[in-house]
Amino acid sequence: MAIRVLLVDDQPLLRTGFRMILEAEQDIAVVGEAGDGLQALDQVRALQPDVVLMDIRMPRMDGVEATRQVTGPGRDGPAKVLVLTTFDLDEYVVEALRAGASGFLLKDAPANELVQAIRVVAAGEAMLAPSITRRLLDKYADHLPSGDEPVPDALNTLTDREVEVLKLVARGLSNAEIAADLFVSETTVKTHVGHVLTKLGLRDRVQAAVYAYESGLVRPGAQ
Protein backbone atom coordinates (compact mmCIF):
# COMPACT_ATOMS: atom_id res chain seq x y z
CA MET A 1 0.00 0.00 0.00
CA ALA A 2 1.14 3.54 -0.74
CA ILE A 3 2.44 5.77 2.06
CA ARG A 4 -0.24 8.41 2.69
CA VAL A 5 1.31 11.87 3.09
CA LEU A 6 -0.18 15.16 4.28
CA LEU A 7 1.69 18.32 3.24
CA VAL A 8 1.65 21.15 5.79
CA ASP A 9 3.27 24.46 4.82
CA ASP A 10 2.02 28.05 4.68
CA GLN A 11 3.59 28.55 1.23
CA PRO A 12 1.38 27.09 -1.54
CA LEU A 13 4.26 27.09 -4.02
CA LEU A 14 6.34 24.86 -1.77
CA ARG A 15 3.42 22.50 -1.25
CA THR A 16 3.00 22.25 -5.02
CA GLY A 17 6.69 21.43 -5.43
CA PHE A 18 6.58 18.75 -2.74
CA ARG A 19 3.45 17.26 -4.28
CA MET A 20 5.06 17.02 -7.70
CA ILE A 21 8.11 15.26 -6.26
CA LEU A 22 6.17 12.80 -4.11
CA GLU A 23 3.44 11.95 -6.60
CA ALA A 24 6.12 10.78 -9.04
CA GLU A 25 6.78 7.88 -6.66
CA GLN A 26 4.62 4.77 -6.99
CA ASP A 27 4.71 4.00 -3.26
CA ILE A 28 3.72 7.49 -2.05
CA ALA A 29 0.32 9.21 -2.27
CA VAL A 30 -0.29 12.84 -1.25
CA VAL A 31 -3.72 12.75 0.37
CA GLY A 32 -4.07 16.41 1.33
CA GLU A 33 -2.57 19.80 2.14
CA ALA A 34 -2.81 22.34 4.95
CA GLY A 35 -1.58 25.91 5.29
CA ASP A 36 -1.23 26.08 9.08
CA GLY A 37 -1.26 23.93 12.20
CA LEU A 38 -4.97 24.15 12.85
CA GLN A 39 -5.81 23.03 9.33
CA ALA A 40 -3.26 20.25 9.74
CA LEU A 41 -5.07 18.87 12.80
CA ASP A 42 -8.37 18.84 10.91
CA GLN A 43 -6.77 17.11 7.93
CA VAL A 44 -5.03 14.51 10.08
CA ARG A 45 -8.36 13.57 11.67
CA ALA A 46 -10.15 13.47 8.33
CA LEU A 47 -7.51 11.84 6.15
CA GLN A 48 -5.53 9.60 8.54
CA PRO A 49 -2.16 10.08 6.81
CA ASP A 50 0.84 7.88 7.56
CA VAL A 51 3.31 10.77 7.45
CA VAL A 52 2.81 14.50 7.97
CA LEU A 53 5.39 16.72 6.29
CA MET A 54 5.24 19.59 8.80
CA ASP A 55 6.58 23.12 8.43
CA ILE A 56 7.79 24.72 11.67
CA ARG A 57 6.87 28.39 11.30
CA MET A 58 3.25 28.92 10.35
CA PRO A 59 0.40 31.29 11.31
CA ARG A 60 -2.33 30.48 13.86
CA MET A 61 -0.61 27.32 15.13
CA ASP A 62 3.05 26.54 14.54
CA GLY A 63 4.48 23.16 13.64
CA VAL A 64 5.71 22.41 17.15
CA GLU A 65 2.27 22.59 18.75
CA ALA A 66 0.66 20.83 15.80
CA THR A 67 3.24 18.04 16.10
CA ARG A 68 2.55 17.73 19.81
CA GLN A 69 -1.17 17.32 19.17
CA VAL A 70 -0.74 14.93 16.25
CA THR A 71 1.64 12.61 18.09
CA GLY A 72 0.40 13.11 21.64
CA PRO A 73 -0.87 10.44 24.03
CA GLY A 74 -4.30 8.99 23.45
CA ARG A 75 -4.07 9.25 19.68
CA ASP A 76 -5.33 6.22 17.80
CA GLY A 77 -2.52 5.25 15.45
CA PRO A 78 -0.87 8.69 15.33
CA ALA A 79 0.77 9.76 12.11
CA LYS A 80 4.52 10.12 11.99
CA VAL A 81 5.71 13.71 11.65
CA LEU A 82 8.67 14.77 9.53
CA VAL A 83 9.53 18.38 10.29
CA LEU A 84 10.59 20.78 7.55
CA THR A 85 12.90 23.67 8.39
CA THR A 86 14.66 26.38 6.42
CA PHE A 87 17.73 26.33 8.63
CA ASP A 88 19.51 23.25 9.91
CA LEU A 89 19.86 24.88 13.33
CA ASP A 90 16.37 26.28 13.64
CA GLU A 91 15.76 26.89 17.36
CA TYR A 92 12.39 25.18 17.10
CA VAL A 93 13.70 21.88 15.75
CA VAL A 94 14.70 20.53 19.16
CA GLU A 95 11.27 21.44 20.53
CA ALA A 96 9.62 19.68 17.60
CA LEU A 97 11.64 16.54 18.30
CA ARG A 98 10.68 16.69 21.96
CA ALA A 99 7.06 17.13 20.87
CA GLY A 100 7.16 13.82 19.02
CA ALA A 101 8.51 14.46 15.52
CA SER A 102 10.28 11.47 13.96
CA GLY A 103 12.96 13.64 12.40
CA PHE A 104 13.57 16.73 10.34
CA LEU A 105 14.64 17.71 6.87
CA LEU A 106 15.87 20.93 5.29
CA LYS A 107 13.49 22.48 2.78
CA ASP A 108 16.28 22.72 0.22
CA ALA A 109 17.19 19.03 0.50
CA PRO A 110 17.44 17.17 -2.82
CA ALA A 111 14.27 15.47 -4.05
CA ASN A 112 15.70 12.00 -3.49
CA GLU A 113 16.40 12.85 0.18
CA LEU A 114 12.81 14.01 0.66
CA VAL A 115 11.47 10.78 -0.81
CA GLN A 116 13.83 8.65 1.25
CA ALA A 117 12.96 10.58 4.41
CA ILE A 118 9.26 9.89 3.89
CA ARG A 119 9.96 6.17 3.50
CA VAL A 120 12.26 6.03 6.52
CA VAL A 121 9.82 7.79 8.81
CA ALA A 122 6.85 5.76 7.54
CA ALA A 123 8.79 2.60 8.42
CA GLY A 124 9.15 3.77 12.00
CA GLU A 125 12.79 4.77 11.84
CA ALA A 126 14.28 8.14 12.74
CA MET A 127 15.32 10.64 10.08
CA LEU A 128 18.14 12.13 12.11
CA ALA A 129 21.57 12.16 10.52
CA PRO A 130 24.42 11.87 13.06
CA SER A 131 26.18 15.02 11.82
CA ILE A 132 23.03 17.12 12.11
CA THR A 133 22.18 15.59 15.48
CA ARG A 134 25.59 16.53 16.82
CA ARG A 135 25.40 20.12 15.55
CA LEU A 136 21.94 20.55 17.02
CA LEU A 137 22.87 19.20 20.41
CA ASP A 138 26.15 21.11 20.49
CA LYS A 139 24.19 24.29 19.85
CA TYR A 140 21.90 23.53 22.79
CA ALA A 141 24.61 22.14 25.05
CA ASP A 142 24.12 24.93 27.59
CA HIS A 143 20.55 23.77 28.12
CA LEU A 144 21.45 20.10 28.56
CA PRO A 145 22.71 18.35 31.72
CA SER A 146 26.42 18.67 32.45
CA GLY A 147 26.76 15.02 33.40
CA ASP A 148 27.10 15.75 37.11
CA GLU A 149 23.39 15.31 37.80
CA PRO A 150 22.07 12.02 39.24
CA VAL A 151 21.16 9.44 36.61
CA PRO A 152 17.35 9.15 36.26
CA ASP A 153 15.93 6.08 37.99
CA ALA A 154 14.43 4.90 34.71
CA LEU A 155 17.92 4.33 33.26
CA ASN A 156 18.62 1.82 36.03
CA THR A 157 15.93 -0.43 34.53
CA LEU A 158 18.05 -0.92 31.40
CA THR A 159 20.57 -3.71 31.00
CA ASP A 160 24.18 -2.82 30.17
CA ARG A 161 23.62 -3.81 26.54
CA GLU A 162 20.44 -1.71 26.34
CA VAL A 163 22.40 1.29 27.63
CA GLU A 164 25.00 0.68 24.92
CA VAL A 165 22.27 0.56 22.29
CA LEU A 166 20.66 3.76 23.63
CA LYS A 167 23.98 5.59 23.39
CA LEU A 168 24.41 4.51 19.78
CA VAL A 169 20.84 5.50 18.94
CA ALA A 170 21.62 8.92 20.42
CA ARG A 171 24.53 9.21 17.99
CA GLY A 172 22.07 8.69 15.14
CA LEU A 173 23.20 5.20 14.11
CA SER A 174 20.81 2.95 12.21
CA ASN A 175 20.00 -0.61 13.33
CA ALA A 176 22.45 -1.97 10.76
CA GLU A 177 25.23 0.31 11.98
CA ILE A 178 24.54 -0.56 15.63
CA ALA A 179 24.56 -4.27 14.75
CA ALA A 180 27.95 -3.90 13.08
CA ASP A 181 29.33 -1.88 15.99
CA LEU A 182 28.20 -4.43 18.60
CA PHE A 183 28.75 -7.55 16.45
CA VAL A 184 25.15 -8.70 16.78
CA SER A 185 22.27 -9.18 14.33
CA GLU A 186 19.87 -6.43 13.30
CA THR A 187 17.04 -8.47 14.80
CA THR A 188 18.81 -8.38 18.16
CA VAL A 189 19.28 -4.63 17.87
CA LYS A 190 15.58 -4.14 17.09
CA THR A 191 14.72 -6.17 20.19
CA HIS A 192 17.02 -4.05 22.37
CA VAL A 193 15.63 -0.80 20.93
CA GLY A 194 12.09 -2.02 21.60
CA HIS A 195 12.97 -2.82 25.21
CA VAL A 196 14.57 0.63 25.66
CA LEU A 197 11.50 2.42 24.31
CA THR A 198 9.14 0.35 26.46
CA LYS A 199 11.13 0.70 29.68
CA LEU A 200 11.62 4.45 29.28
CA GLY A 201 8.11 5.12 28.01
CA LEU A 202 9.34 6.66 24.76
CA ARG A 203 7.57 6.77 21.40
CA ASP A 204 10.44 6.26 18.97
CA ARG A 205 14.17 6.48 18.34
CA VAL A 206 14.19 10.27 18.11
CA GLN A 207 12.69 10.64 21.57
CA ALA A 208 15.21 8.07 22.78
CA ALA A 209 18.06 10.17 21.38
CA VAL A 210 16.74 13.34 23.00
CA TYR A 211 16.24 11.47 26.29
CA ALA A 212 19.82 10.20 26.23
CA TYR A 213 21.14 13.75 26.02
CA GLU A 214 18.65 15.33 28.42
CA SER A 215 19.37 12.65 31.04
CA GLY A 216 23.10 13.24 30.79
CA LEU A 217 23.79 9.69 29.56
CA VAL A 218 25.38 11.16 26.44
CA ARG A 219 26.96 14.59 26.20
CA PRO A 220 27.39 16.77 23.09
CA GLY A 221 30.74 16.12 21.42
CA ALA A 222 31.19 12.76 23.11
CA GLN A 223 31.83 9.70 20.97
From TrEMBL:
Residue ranges constituting the Response regulatory domain according to the UniProt record: 4-122
SMART domains: HTH_LUXR (SM00421), REC (SM00448)
Keywords noted in UniProt: DNA-binding, Phosphoprotein, Transcription, Transcription regulation
Record GO terms (molecular function): DNA binding
Matching InterPro entries: CheY-like_superfamily (IPR011006), NreC/VraR/RcsB-like_REC (IPR058245), Sig_transdc_resp-reg_C-effctor (IPR016032), Sig_transdc_resp-reg_receiver (IPR001789), Tscrpt_reg_LuxR_C (IPR000792), WalR-like (IPR039420)
Keyword Phosphoprotein: yes
Keyword Heme: no
BP-aspect Gene Ontology terms: phosphorelay signal transduction system; regulation of DNA-templated transcription
Superkingdom of origin: Bacteria
CDD domains (alphabetical): LuxR_C_like, REC_NarL-like
All copies of domain HTH luxR-type, residue ranges: 151-216
Residues the record lists as 4-aspartylphosphate modifications: D55
Record-given protein name: LuxR family transcriptional regulator
